[in-house]
Amino acid sequence: MTSGTDWLDDVRWNADGLVPAIAQDATSRAVPTLAWMNRDALKATADTGEAHYWSRSRGKLWRKGESSGHVQRVREVRLDCDHDAILLLVEQVGGIACHTGRERCFFRRLDGGAWRDVEPVVKDPKAIYGEG
Amino acid sequence: MTSGTDWLDDVRWNADGLVPAIAQDATSRAVPTLAWMNRDALKATADTGEAHYWSRSRGKLWRKGESSGHVQRVREVRLDCDHDAILLLVEQVGGIACHTGRERCFFRRLDGGAWRDVEPVVKDPKAIYGEG
C-alpha cells in the first residue's frame, strides 16, 4: 500500500506554508534545534533520510549540514495531535547543531531575570564554515 | 542585579507576537508538546514556575493543565541562537501532556508513506475533562 504524497496533505501548514520542526538527538535525547519546514523540506527529509528545512532568512530549501557537514540523519518523523508541528529523532553528525559552534541552539538559560550563555563553543564557526 | 522585563525584549516575537515553545520532560527527556507563547505567557511561566501558553484556537492565555490538572512544572527556560524559539525543561504532572489522553502530542509516526498512531491513550479524555 502506497499513498503517494497524501501524508503531506495531512500536515496543517501555516499561512506561509511552514510548520516548526523540532530535532531531538536519538542517542543523547537532547533537543539541538527548532527549524522550519515547508512541504518540499519535509518531502526531501522523508526521501533522503537527512533533515531538510526551509531557511526563512535565506528564503530557500536547506539541507542541514550542507555547509558545515553537521548533517542530521533522521531515524523517525513524528507529527503532533494538531497536525502542525513535526518532531524528528536524529543522529547529529559531528555533535554540533548550532551555527555558533555549540552542540545545540538552546544555549541561553533564563537565570535571575537575564539570559545567560551556559553552553561552550565546541568549535570556532570560522573553522566550520571558513573565513568567507 | 535585576533587569525588570528586559529579558522579554530579547525574544524575537513573530508578527503575531508569538514564539514556539518546546516542552521537554526533565526526567524521561521525552518531548511531549510544542505550544505557543506570547509575552504574557512567557512572563507568567517565569513568575509562577508553571508553563503558560497562548492558545491560538481559543485566543487566550492558558495555564497548561488548568482543566486537566496536567500541569508542567518548569525547571529551566532556554532561548535559542536566533532568539525566536523557547525550550522548557518540565516535570509533566500526571504523565499526560496531550488533550487526547496520550503521554505526548507527537504520537503519529511516518511509516511507509502514512502517519500511524504509535502511542496508546493512557486515559480517556472524557475522564480527564468531563463529559461537558
Which segments of chain A are poorly predicted (pLDDT under 50) over 5 or more consecutive residues? none
The greatest interface here is: A-B, 40 and 40 residues
Shape of chain A: globular
Strand content of chain A: 25-35%
Quickly give the structural class of chain A: alpha+beta
Whole-angstrom Rg of chain A:
16 Å
Which oligomeric form is depicted? homodimer
Largest sheet of chain A: 4 strands, mixed
The largest beta-sheet of chain A arranges its strands as 2-1-6-5
Q: Helix-strand pattern of chain A, N to C?
A: HEEHEEEEEEH
General description of the model:
The structure is a homodimer of 132-residue chains. By secondary structure, chain A is of the alpha+beta class. Chain A has 3 helices and 8 strands. Chain A has helices spanning 6-9, 39-48, 125-129, and strands spanning 19-25, 33-37, 52-55, 60-63, 72-79, 86-92, 108-110, 115-117. In chain A, the strands form 3 sheets. Chain A has a 4-stranded mixed beta sheet with strand order 2-1-6-5, covered by helices on one side. A two-stranded antiparallel sheet of chain A has the order 3-4. Chain A has a two-stranded antiparallel sheet with strand order 7-8. In chain A, a hairpin with a 4-residue loop joins strand 7 and strand 8 (115-117). Chain A is globular, with a radius of gyration of 16 Å. The model of chain A has no long low-confidence stretch (mean pLDDT 94). The A-B interface holds A 1-7, 10, 20, 22, 24, 29-31, 33-34, 46, 76-82, 85, 87, 98-100, 102, 105-110, 112-115 and B 1-7, 10, 20, 22, 24, 29-31, 33-34, 46, 76-82, 85, 87, 98-100, 102, 105-110, 112-115.
